[in-house]
Request: fold
Amino acid sequence: MDEAGRATLNQAISALRGILSSPQLANISSSGNLVSSPESLGVTVDREMSRLFPSGTPATAVPHSSLRYDSQRHFGNFTRTRRKRVKTQHHDTFIKDVILLPGPKCAVVVKHKAKHRLHQLGHILNGFEFQKSWSRGDVEAHIRHAFVDKLPPDISIELLMACGNKLIAPKLHAGQELCAELIHKVYKSKALYVRPLQSLETQSNDSSCEEENPEENQPSLTAQANESFPSGSAQQSSSTVSVYVADDDLLPSTSSNNNNYNNYLSVLATLSDVSSEDEELQTAMLASLQSERATECTAPPVKEILHELATKITDHTKSKFNISRSNVLDGALRGFKRGSYQPQNGIMVRFSDDLGFTEEAVDLGGPKREFLRLLIQALSTSSMFEGEEGKKNLTIDSIAMREDRYFFAGRAIAVSLIHGGPPACFVSPTLFSCLVHGPDRGQPVLEDIVDVELRDKIKRIADSETMDELRAATLPLEDYLASAGCLRPLRRLEDKTLLVKDLLMFQVIHRVRGPFERFRDGLRTLGLLDKIQAHPESFRPVLCWVPSTLDSDVLDNLFIIRRSAKATNRWNAEDAVIPFWRDYLCDAEAEGTEKLASILIFATGASRIPPLGFAPQPSIEFLHSDMQSGSPSQLPMANTCINCLKLPLHTSYNTFKTSMDFALGNTHGFGLI
Reply:
């Protein structure tokens, strides 16, 4: 080690000895504390710093939790406080205004006077509470329960939303349903409009919310502005806003001095509705609305659709059906199951009466129409369907399932419609809805249940007003609830709504899911089901029951009267009988539609005018003197193959009526009575 190193080492040793001999270290050593606590060492540092850097103020000993200078006191607060993130609150419920429209023609947003009128009638619920877990069926069930006095259970409804000043149905992706969660997201702050598909029996006139032609009946914003402000005033603008007022009836009825102010309020309300929407969403919804309206306007009538499907039929190949009127359904099943049968083949029918004699007839349409009419009647009364007349639902029949009769029932309906037969007109609205939209979207009602005892028990559940009544109503149905998969604890009175819905779905739809699938497969014959699903409103009158439109005028216009040459004795005799024929139609109408149907059956073999119409057109001829016998026939004759009715020539109306009644009541088969 050189001299410089030794000198440095000696200086360090001297400094260490000076520290060890200091009085503070001696006090610490005497007290036995070898290491100073952070608090005492901090105080010592503060004092030493005050001595070396006097600031004119006495130093105060402040205890610290760390060996650092009190920077916050001298230099400010340098620490960063973390901002708490606001937690998003998720609620299981939301509220929304629900407006029940008075009829199916309502297409614009209700405002002013119309909205006030709906409030008075109890058609508006403010702050209706929705559960986000509700499905589409649950939403409708709760809405129906809320409007139980206003909305009959047999009337279907659709949910709409406001798009500007119009009402539209939200356009959803295939497979989606408008559940409560989607309503919360799509509708946002908008009201939920409920539009029935039939007019409600209220004092409200739904014309106040009908959509009119804006170009003809609704003044534009420019016209109202010109009316409110004189030409040349400062309020005129170079740009024109193409917004239309919804309806004059929606404005409050005031004196003529307030007309301009009313127009101003209506325009502002319309502009507010438009500006509150997202522009892209507005455009998409309007495009969807226009597309739906174009589809509805261009939907072809059912006759054109069936004519298109009938082009697949080939008349040069025939499928034979040997039918006995005492068991039409059995003969039809044998024909449909025959290996050579093809739906596109023509139909040739041979009838035999109760004694087994074959009724020979060239089948130009008459025997076929007679066969299809009897077949549809047999289906509606068969064990495969249940329910009141005109509102039949499927039911379970073990023999029909084993023999696959449900498939042939659907095929028979398809064949009848496409081959020129009568419509079914016995399918219930619930079954029709399942065929169009699928069974999972079915909405059965209590009237669909045929079992009176079961229907009364379910009705008792629906009418329960307390939890005790609800428990007492479900007690007799425990076994049935277990079979239906609906045996669950009921904790709230509101649970009865979902329970009733599940029971109806099980009894009317889920219980017969197998027969329904086969029945639907049968309707696919010749592509009929696809057309039904594409144009449901066109096919509703030919599958579901509708009141008969058959009257004396319809029959009179249906038949073409073929007259003899003018200015002849035959012309004069026919001229006297034609009023008898028309009077007979009027008398038959007074007796009921069944009497008119019997006249049509006698002449054509059909009880209703087929959706495809008649070919050839029904006609009337007259029975003049026979060349062989020399005496005219006293009774009417008919040739259903060519739809020709031949009337006897009587000089008295009573005699004419008696002969017609006798013929209609005693004719079975074709040709002469």
Q: What stands out?
A: The longest strand covers residues 314-324.
